[in-house]
Amino acid sequence: MQIRSEWDTLREVMVHRPEVEIEYAMLAPRPFLFERVFNTRIALEEHHRLEDTLKSLGVRCLVLKDTVVETADRDRAFREKLERRILDSVRFFGSVQSVEAAKRELERNVHEMDSSTLFRILTLEPSIDLKKDNGSVVEYPTVYSNLPLANLYFMRDQQAVSQAGIIFGNMRKRQRAKEADITEFVFREALGLRNTFRVGGEGTFEGGDFMPAGDFALIGTGPRTNLQGAMQAMSSGLMDFDEVAVVDNPVYDFMDRERDQMANMHLDTFFNIAGKGLAVASVELMKKARVSVYSKSQRGRYERMADTTLYNYIRQNGYDILDLSVGEQLCYASNFLTVSDRKIVAVDTQGVARKLMGAGVLGDQVLSILRKELDGRRMFPDSQAVRDFGIDVVKLDLSELTGGYGGAHCMTAALARS
Questions:
Q1: If we measure between CA atoms, which residue out of 10, 7, 9, 11 comes closest to residue 276?
Q2: Each residue of 244-294: pLDDT tens digit?
Q3: Domains of the chain from N-terminus onward
Q4: Is the N-terminal amide bond of 381 cis, ω within 30° of 0?
Q5: CB contact at 8 A, 409 and 268
Q6: To the nearest whole percent, how much of the chain has pLDDT over 90?
Q7: Which residue did the predictor score with more confidence, 357 or 393?
Q8: CB–CB of 60/14 below 8 Å?
Q9: Residue 369 C-beta-side C-alpha neighbours within 13 Å
Q10: Which helix (H) or strand (E) covers residue 105, if one does?
Q11: Neighbouring-strand partners of residue 170
Q12: Are strands 216-221 and 210-213 parallel, antiparallel or unpaired?
């Protein structure tokens, strides 16, 4: 597994089909880091279409759950490790006697559970509170899910693949903290990958902030990835770029007082690469984004060499830029997945715009911007600019799934390009 640039031909991805864990997020979207409530049945259909589309384009799609289940069913050693993770994650509460008895029973029974059940337990991490009513012999169970991993279907963020291996992240938000534990377990134990690195300590790092571009790479910092995490990734020994540009993810001037996380959550929420020498991004945000450029020294270490803006840095590297409007950017236009040079799988941003306008989650200023853009012209990826730059687009309706704050790029962990 290796990736040197976003425009090399995509060969393999891993995805996670949303399951029962996202149902919890529908009860309280914002605390689960979702933008809005959405129809989960339709969302699952959208996800299947995303998988089918990628397969039709020659991309091998690994499904997280299928990988776990199939490996557990054929590999006893992996199955035992999976069972141990379940035993370590399930919590019981109640009297000492009840808790000890429940633990012993789970240890006896876990071997009989099917692998699909074990995977669901892994994503739900349940706790069971055992109490007895007066005169009752059998305990009454109250079941809690410590924190269902509703964001797990955004498979981009738990890790990043570079030329020499996989860098596993350290998620900034508590709601997502366990996700990288699961993907690291699967990649290392089910797929047998060993050339890995894990960001830790005070450093936070998420894959949506990493953008490889051949001789150089970009790492965004902001709400999710911090400078310590970026520096750990750069010193991991798994990056072999001549330069790494560390970007301070910006916001629009009208958002300075109340930062909208979709404007700058990750680098890929406002910037992406559609082909060699072609970026698709908000030029306004690129000009605001401060960049520190690190060059690789003869000793193999990255040393800070210059400060500039993202716009100037990209232009100095010979890139053309397809400029996104505010409305396009806020509707996930830059969150497309490049499958080969100037061929992308993109979100239907106009469909997302209509969904957002009807959801009651936007401020008055953003709502006004979207109304004007929908009335005035065709939005990316249907715009004339897309045709002018020779971009071949496969457009998908992901308007339900984007309710979790992300598009096709966020939903796919790119594993191999050539």
A1: 7
A2: 999 999 988 887 645 556 568 999 999 999 999 999 999 999 999 999 999
A3: 10-67+149-417 (3.75.10.10), 68-145 (no CATH)
A4: yes
A5: yes
A6: 86
A7: 393
A8: no
A9: 17
A10: helix 96-109
A11: 205
A12: antiparallel
Nearest-angstrom CA–CA distance, 304 and 289: 17
Residue carrying structure tokens 């998420």:
206
Cβ atoms of 150 and 167 closer than 8 Å: no
User: 394 exposed, middle or buried (CB, 10 Å; 0-12, 13-18, 19+)?
Assistant: middle
* 178, 274, 326, 380 from 330: Cα distances, Å: 28, 18, 6, 11
Q: Output the pLDDT for position 148.
A: 94
* Cβ–Cβ under 8 Å, residues 136 and 171: no
Query: Model-level pTM?
Result: 0.95
Instruction: With cut-offs at 50, 70 and 90, classify the pLDDT of residue 133.
Output: confident
**129 SS3 class:** strand
* Structure token digits, residue 192: 């047998």
Mean pLDDT of the residues in the chain:
94
Residue identified by tokens 């680098």 is 267
190's tokens: 């089910």
Contact by Cβ (8 Å): 169, 9 = no
